[in-house]
Every structure is written in C-alpha cells, then in structure tokens.
Amino acid sequence: MRIGLKIPHFSSHCTWEGVIGLAPEIERLGFDSVWVRDHLSYEPGAYDPPGRAFVDPFVTLGAVAGATKTIKLGFCVIVPFRHPLVTAQLVGSLAWVSRGRVELGMGIGGPAKQFEVTGIPYRRRASLCQDTIEVLRLAASGKDFSYTGGHTSFESAHVDPGPPPTAPIWYGGYSLSALERAAACCDGIMPGKCKFTDFDPAVETLRRITRDRPRTMLIGTEPFIVLGKSRKAAIDSVSDQIARMLTSRTSDDGAYSDLNGAIIAGTPDECSEQLHDYATRGVDCVVLDPRLQAADFPRIVATIGEDILPRFLPDGD
C-alpha cells in the first residue's frame, strides 16, 4: 500500500519553506507521493485553516518537481473550470518537467463560486469533467486529434509534450454516479474523508460494475490524519473543525466509530493500526491529509515519516 501526503499550498499556513523547502525531506522520509488541491477564488471550507491564500496546484507541483527526484506528484482533484485542452497542456508540461512523475485525480468540485467567476454553469461540471478526462486520454496519444463531447468540441488539436499515457487517473467521489463515471473512463477512485460505512459499499459496487472489464480498478482514499496522545484526545483537539462529522460521543469505544475511515488519529501506534485497516481492504494508495494541524505541518511530517511510514515500507517491520 502506497502512502502519500497532501501538502499545505493554501491558507495562512502556506509558506515556501513549508511546501517547496520541505519537499526534499518529505521525499527522504519515504512518502510515495505529494498531493494538491484545485480551487479558484478560494474561500476556506469548514475543515480548512483560516486564510485565503491558494497557490496554483500546477505551479506548486512544478516547483516540487524541481526540488525532488523520485516522489510522485498527484492531484486530489483537478476541477474542470479550465478548458480541457488547457488542462491537458498543463498536465503534459508538468509530466515533462518532472520526468513523468504525475498522477491525476479528477472531480466535479464543490464550491459554485469557482465556476461562476469563469462563466461556466455549475450544472455542467460533471459533463465538463468527463470531457476533460477524455481529452487527457486523446492528448496522451501524441497525435493530432479532434473531439466532440458534452460541452467541448474542436478540430485537429495537438498537445506536445502531452500527458503520459501510463499516468493513472483517479476519480474523486463515491456516489453511484461518481462510481459509474470512474468505471467508464478512469483507473480508480480516490474519495476524500470517506467513512468505512460509505467506503466499503462503494468499493463493493465499483468492483461489481467493473468485474467483467479487463482492468482492475485502483482503490485510494484521502483521510485526515491528526496526531495526539490518544485517538480521542487527537479528535477532541480539532472537534470544532470537524463538528459536522462528529455524530456520537456516547462511549469511549463507540464515540468516534462513525469517523472510522475518514480520520486517522492518535499516537503513531494507533495511527499505524488504523492504516492497516485500509491495507486489509486492499486499498492501493492512502493520501494523508494533515490540514487540521496545518500550523504544525513540519512536526507532523517528521512524526509520520519517522514513526509510522517505516512500518509500511518494504523493509519495515
């Protein structure tokens, strides 16, 4: 199971030292990949630290590529408020500067504002997402191509350098419609903050609807990670940020059972045990999201890298 890390290229805690400067250390510690978000006219969400700073994901990963050598560069997720050809060119250029270290994630995006400011009707986002995925596939051929999709059409375009044809495309969702989109044109799913009570049936559904297809779908997930003296103490320390995810505090054993899968929390030993829960489910990639403790990002990175990752590396215990 691969373990990646979402980096804080947003909010008041976004600094050059904590994103680009820390990238070589993240690579040295053994993280498989670093991942970024995609927003326009950014406003902090319910789980986000304060601050409206947001560094473009392609620029961020381009700079990380220059500071590292082997770590993979991923998107959770690219949102379709760009023309699909623009996205294809950005992906191809990032693949070129990173020597092919790109992993793609596509999704329909949440806030309507990022579509409104670009003049794109919010209701078109699912169709535009599919257009973008299909154009990325065509652009990877290295040949001139034409395209007619739900909301995009053009004749005889080319993208050079293009997206690498072997780069996996993850889909960021787990609703039935999201699973059907993923099955139709993606390589796997990467839902964010997905509780096991939702994750397990989603994976079962995905495997059922793709069982007759030649390729095996990749399974990923993107939970929060919160470090603390215990799982309860860790979650309590950020309970205001995740109040909408906390639905029960009835007992020590069951208080946070509804968060299983959505949040990894506690000591390094407890976090490692929770990571094993993903491995036993056959998850291919877990992207750890430490944004609830963004102010302590360097410490979080060091603790995960020194006390948790070695247990999951090939030569670990």
Shape: globular
Radius of gyration: 19 Å
**How is the biggest beta sheet arranged?**
8 strands, parallel, barrel
What's the overall average pLDDT, rounded? 93
Order of helices and strands: EHHEHEHEHHEEEHEHEEHEHEH
Question: How big a fraction of the residues is strand?
Answer: 15-25%
The strand order across the widest sheet is: 1-2-3-4-7-8-9-12
Question: Can you count the helices?
Answer: 11
Give the structural class: alpha/beta
Can you count the beta strands? Answer: 12
The low-confidence parts are 248-253
Measured as a percent range, the helix fraction is 25-40%
Distance between the termini: 14 Å
Brief digest:
About 35% of the residues lie in helices and about 15% in strands.
Which helices and strands appear, and what pairs or packs with what?
Blueprint: E1 2-6, H1 16-19, H2 23-29, E2 33-36, H3 57-67, E3 72-75, H4 84-97, E4 102-106, H5 113-116, H6 125-139, E5 145-148, E6 153-157, E7 169-171, H7 176-185, E8 188-189, H8 196-209, E9 218-221, E10 224-227, H9 231-237, E11 263-266, H10 268-280, E12 285-288, H11 297-308
Helix pairs in contact: 3-4, 4-6, 7-8, 10-11
